[in-house]
Amino acid sequence: MSARSKARKRALDILFQADVRGEQPATILAAEAKRAAGEPARQASWLYARDIVDGVIDNREAIDEQITTFAKDWTLARMPAVDRAVLRIGVWEILYNDEVPTAVAIDEAVELAKEFSTDESGAFVHGVLANIARAS
């Protein structure tokens, strides 16, 4: 597994924890930063995970607006917390990270949804992100 794939999993964990606990992602991010400092082997994945979480925090309103616009008949509150976090990561990579090709961002998000969410989540995440990509 690539360092970026590992980073996406770490970012998913941080965003999911913040959502479920009702805490700010920055709080969870700070705790994770302390833990990562003591684990040099995870340094490569940590840096990109932090970029993702910081990017989601900085652009949260616009990201959520995109998700709400393109998630037909689904509100953010109605989505599983994992799907919300995966979609936020995918939207950030598509709209705010020029280093990641759109197809890679979508594929990685779909894989995260398949691994950590419901049976239907992969198709749902793909549909939302593909529509966002086409519109951008």
TrEMBL record:
Gene3D superfamilies: NusB-like (1.10.940.10). GO terms for biological process: DNA-templated transcription termination; transcription antitermination. Keywords: RNA-binding, Transcription, Transcription antitermination, Transcription regulation. It comes from the Bacteria. Coiled coil: none annotated. Pfam families: NusB (PF01029). This is Transcription antitermination protein NusB. It comes from Microbacterium kyungheense. The gene is nusB.
